[in-house]
Amino acid sequence: MGSQITKNYDMSKEPICSGGPRGVWKIHKAVKKDRTRQEVAIFILNKKGLDKIPKSKKEEVFTQLRREAQELTKLRHPRLLNVIEPLIEDKNMMAFVTEPLDNSLYSLLGNDEDVTARSKVKPSELEMKLNILDVVEGITFLHNDAKIIHLGISPENIYVTQSGKWKISGFSMAVTNSYESEVEVNFEYYSNKESYLTSVSPNLVYTAPELTTKRQCSKSSDLFSLGSLLFTLFKFSENYSKEGMNGEYNCVFNLYEHSSECHVNSCRELQRINPRT
User: Could you give the CA distance from residue 224 to residue 105 in angstroms, rounded to a whole number?
Assistant: First the structure.
């Protein structure tokens, strides 16, 4: 498979960032070998790096990881990561090609131990707020048009394009919700202390309580995850004072406490975070 990729692209030797569960996807910059010299990103998953997965669960995990690309290929929206070439797989790895990227929130937040150190420009307060609204727009499209509950809204599933835009990916845990009702789920949750992937399931830090207590999910589950992501980002930013961060968190908490009622108006509510925009 490596030869199939290098046949069409000049690819960076080292990954620029990681993404997906436990950062199992390594993302490389690449340029197409033709007149266009089109810039792209190539997602590569090395199956040998998942040897700690029990043999009885390995194929199940691979099936879910395939969905990262397969489901994304079916969807088109400006706030979702754009797939240029679909998933290719052999006995050693999986790979697919997307629009060019500069980073992932997973790497930006310092979770990438095996990716070569590089300059990481932290987003400004304004950039974060505008990109958060873009993420909300993407979630709204998934809920209202695609009838999908993502269940993986977290840093490992949001990528940063060359223009600084944030794009949603990571549909390995997504479920359909055509009837606007609660959906049963049956994930095996991993410990956040584990440094390696043992199963594909939502990151507990960003998982709504009902997924673990009731084994059910709804649109509100994604909104809870988004609220947790917001708190992580604002806590991470050095541009926020303690008072400012608390103000942001209170706004998020009030929004997601009644998330099922305010989903349609989520963009408008999130704009209250910055009344100057």
Answer: 18
Classify residue 92 as exposed, middle or buried by CB count within 10 Å of its CB (0-12, 13-18, 19+). exposed
What pLDDT shows up at residue 115? 62
Cβ within 8 Å of residue 98, ≥6 positions away: 40, 41, 42, 43, 81, 82, 83, 84, 169
**Rounded CA separation 184/177 (Å):** 10
Distance CA 129, CA 125 (A): 6
Indicate if the pLDDT at residue 135 is higher than 90. yes
Given pLDDT bands bounded at 50, 70 and 90, which one contains residue 154? very high
Mean of pLDDT values over 36-47 = 94
Is the whole-model pTM more than 0.70?
yes
Of the pLDDT bands very low, low, confident and very high (cuts 50, 70, 90), residue 235 is: confident
Instruction: Confirm if 16 and 30 have CB atoms less than 8 A apart.
Output: no
Tokens of 165: 């835009």
Question: By three-state DSSP, how is residue 237 classified?
Answer: coil
Measure the CA–CA gap between 263 and 161, rounded to whole angstroms: 26
Measured CA distances, 187 to 64, 207, 221, 225 (Å): 11, 11, 14, 16
> Could you give the 3-state DSSP secondary structure of residue 109?
coil
